[in-house]
Design a protein that fits this description.
- It is built from 13 helices and 18 strands.
- The protein is α+β, with helices and mostly antiparallel strands and 573 residues long.
- A 5-stranded mixed beta sheet has the order 1-2-3-5-4.
- The radius of gyration is 26 Å and the shape is elongated.
Length: 573
């Protein structure tokens, strides 16, 4: 990939988004029929009422992007009140890993004073002087690190300004059995958890984190325990590998080190559960960095959140992110990275897409789904790797499965309308359902709808519900007419019939090249609860990759946003 790729590490930290367009009332043929019902809004407290287009960011000079990255890190690591820290933790924690990643890759564009500040944030806790309230620095001698053949856990026992020492109780040995061993039990627990996480990923076929040229003591990956909960953070991994000079080729596969909280006191969940899921999540970032530290941030966060539940299935901490996810906000592009506003942390919730795929393609290696390993191999940015960006990798891997990313995105959008049936843990974890784009009831007298219009962004969808009322004949059918954007722009649709009893049945609508199509489905109120029509914009086409700073795949400009999709329906026999 060209050197311009390195310019794309700074992200938009907030995205002003509304949801769906208003619904037009123009009839599908000729003027609107005043007697025909329109698709009314469902639950106006949550359903959108207007849309603004996704604002694309103009090309940003390197220095401004670097300054923005530093400002984001300063905000994340600034001292917080206990209530502010608690609010951050309850929302899933501050976005430290990606912010530090962006700073690490762009710090060379800062002026001298700002470079010194950036170096402080990127410095390992053992290398700082504990001289301010912003950076994570021990400032005192660390205790002897506890190391396995693969990881080293660092901590302090002496008091310091940041109160970084973990609980010092020592009643168990390294295996967790009764008997002191000279190491705090909390540290032993972190070592055991990190070892399990490391072994799980290696057995699953993943590349080990890269050696760090002896930083931290030797080439093993270093895990530091520090008081970061007061900053609203669960943990983070970052890289302190130097960027090459301007005349040298960029290195995309990087080493990493990680920081976990020193006690997880006052966090949601138990301390052990937080150690487990944070270790699984952050160590997956270190694994990702061994392939490509520059990869699209939505992909890095979504797949790391997915990994939590694969390693520690019983904790289910990642279910919290479904509150803001493609399940509840299908109108947002799947590959959005949103750090602020009403849809903050949406990118964490997109782990659901990868769970959908790995539940469908269940082959495993070492207990881990092979499909995710295949994706990591495609985004591999090392000298020998194909270096595909996120959505390219999804397309490539699914093509090997004799399907397409577009078809699977449509299937994902349909599955999300009934997630408690369509996901293995959907019922147990009460997966949520998002708003409809519109809803209408049809009867004999009001047997057809006016045409409704919605504009869809790339990798997003909108679903309409049509309910039969007092249509008792078994021969009754619903005919759905679609006038969508041209098929080459990503238009796809599915009709799903929800019966009075049993599981829903879905079928894809056959669209012509212009995006037009019709479908018929059973519509007797004796047999049918309702019918849903899902209109998807499955486009994964982008322009100006790695030259823009958008929050989407390849940091590029989506080619097929704001696509106009129209739907109407009528009762037939």
């Amino acid at each position: 990939m060209t050197p311009t790729r390195a310019r794309a590490a700074a992200l938009l930290t907030a995205l002003g988004l509304a949801c769906l367009s208003g619904l037009s009332s123009g009839a599908s043929a000729g003027a609107a029929d005043p007697a025909a019902p329109g698709f009314g809004r469902v639950d106006p407290s949550t359903a959108p009422t207007a849309v603004t287009s996704l604002k694309q960011a103009p090309t940003t000079p390197d220095r401004k992007a670097a300054v923005d990255a530093l400002a984001a890190v300063r905000t994340i690591f600034a001292p917080k009140s206990p209530s502010q820290a608690r609010a951050s933790l309850e929302a899933g924690g501050v976005e430290a890993t990606m912010a530090l990643r962006d700073l690490a890759l762009r710090a060379g564009s800062l002026d001298e004073d700002d470079r010194a500040d950036a170096a402080g944030y990127l410095t390992r806790p053992t290398d700082g002087d504990d001289g301010d309230d912003f950076t994570v620095e021990y400032g005192v001698a660390e205790a002897a690190p506890v190391c396995t053949p693969d990881v080293c856990v660092h901590y302090v026992t002496a008091a310091n300004e940041n109160q970084d020492a973990p609980p010092l109780a020592d009643t168990k040995n390294a295996a967790g059995s009764a008997g002191a061993n000279g190491v705090p039990d909390y540290v032993d627990t972190v070592v055991r958890v990190m070892t399990k996480v490391h072994d799980t990923y290696v057995k699953g076929g993943y590349r080990e984190p890269r050696p760090d040229n002896g930083l931290g003591g030797d080439d093993r990956i270093d895990i530091y325990l520090a008081e970061i909960g007061s900053r609203g953070a669960y943990g983070y991994c970052t890289t302190d590998q130097d960027n090459p000079g301007p005349a040298q080729p960029q290195v995309y596969d990087r080493w990493a080190y990680c920081v976990l909280d020193n006690d997880y006191a006052g966090f949601p969940n138990t301390a052990l559960e937080n150690i487990q899921v944070t270790a699984a999540h952050e160590y997956f970032h270190a694994t990702q960095y061994a392939y490509d530290a520059f990869e699209d941030p939505w992909f890095l966060e979504a797949t790391a959140t997915w990994a939590e539940d694969e390693v520690y299935d019983g904790v289910d901490d990642n279910a919290q992110y479904l509150k803001t996810s493609p399940l509840t906000a299908p109108f947002l592009p799947l590959d959005s990275f949103i750090s602020a506003g009403n849809f903050a942390n949406f990118h964490y919730g997109t782990w659901s897409f990868f769970r959908f795929l790995t539940e469908k393609y269940r082959a495993t290696k070492g207990g881990m789904p092979v499909l995710m390993l295949d994706l990591m191999k495609k985004v591999d940015g090392s000298a020998a790797g194909p270096d595909q960006y996120s959505w390219q990798a999804v397309q490539s891997v699914l093509a090997k499965k004799r399907t397409t990313a577009a078809k699977q995105f449509l299937a994902f959008s349909v599955a999300n309308r009934d997630p408690r049936r369509n996901y293995d843990e959907g019922k147990a974890n009460k997966y949520p359902v998002g708003p409809l784009a519109g809803s209408v009831k049809l009867t004999r007298k009001r047997s057809r709808t006016n045409q409704a219009t919605v504009r869809t962004e790339h990798l997003s969808s909108a679903t309409y519900r049509i309910t039969p009322r007092r249509l008792t004949s078994r021969r009754t059918k619903l005919e759905v007419s679609l006038d969508m954007a041209p098929r080459k722009r990503g238009s796809m649709a599915a009709v799903t019939m929800f019966p009075q009893k049993g599981k829903a049945r879905s079928s894809t609508v056959d669209l012509d090249r212009r995006g037009d199509g019709t479908a018929r489905v059973a519509f007797s109120s004796r047999k049918v609860r309702y019918v849903e029509v899902t209109l998807a914009n499955t486009s994964g086409r982008f322009a100006q990759c790695f030259e823009q700073y958008t929050p989407f795949s390849c940091y590029g400009l989506p080619k097929d946003d704001r696509q106009k999709q129209r739907i109407s329906a009528r009762v037939v026999r």
